[in-house]
Amino acid sequence: MSIELRRARFQNDGRDIVGHLRLPPGFEEDGRYPAIVVVGPGSSVKKQAGAVYSEKLAERGYVTIVFDPSYQGESGGTPRDTENSAVRVEDIRCAVDYLVTLPFIDEERIGLLGICAGGGYAINAALIERRFKAVGTVVANDLGTAFRRMQPQADAVETMLAAIGKQRTAEARGAEPKRNAWLPSEAEAKATGIADPTLLNAIDYYLTPRGHHPNRTNQRLFTSDALLLGYDGFHLVEELLVQPIQVIVGGKLGTTFSHEAGKSLWERARNRKDFIVIEGADHYDMYDKPEYVDPAVDHLVALYDEHLHA
Fold first, then answer.
1. 171 with 163: CB under 8 angstroms?
2. Which run of H or E residues covers position 257?
3. Residue 131 contacts by C-beta under 8 Å, 6 or more apart in sequence?
4. Which of 14, 286, 294, 309 has the fewest CB atoms within 10 Å, measured from its CB?
């Protein structure tokens, strides 16, 4: 028996959100199943890292859903290529609204998994969404903190915010929207002498056949950078995150800061279950490499089996 893949479509504030629903082997329409909402990394679409984990969790008996964020991929919304943290969090909650309309979903057994920036968005959603009964993260990152930390100069954030204000003024007066690349191309990386192994691994994943998908544009609307600079996905974790949480990180620290972010998240959570280090794994290795993904899934299944089964 194999996994059945169905297209899913739901709404967030009038925008069509397009996703994939995976049904486990032996699925029966009149059954009642636990479900997991899978939230992919920033800029990712549903057929990338999120699909890897969705497939493996479905193989273990869970209905899973993964989707393109608002303004990206097949999902609706303009301006395109916007990375709006608040909207991405609401996408997650709308996915639950969709799941609870399906007769084969047990609404008391819904879990959440966030990967990379999707981990930060997942945590932020779980703070106010009690329909999630357990939360797993893989190389979770608060994109706002990471984005601020990655700026090279001490005054870079203030310089960027000033530039974004000028760009908004220009666009209000009729200028074309400005977009920046999430990642340099392989050729640009080579020409500029980029040697950071984590960044090179990101380029290898997103911009080569290893993980590339044409629905991911690799473009980010410049004016939406202000939303990232002002975002803190882990704010109020100590007060509002009550669900059992599992944090999985790669053993290599790298330059995404996800290892440190995951450790901080776990230490701040009041209902922490496991902090798991996948030795030898870089941040982006955790997206698709079986030798690292498979043990992570084993740990996630242990969490979900404990908290999502009657």
1. no
2. none
3. 96, 100, 107, 110
4. 14
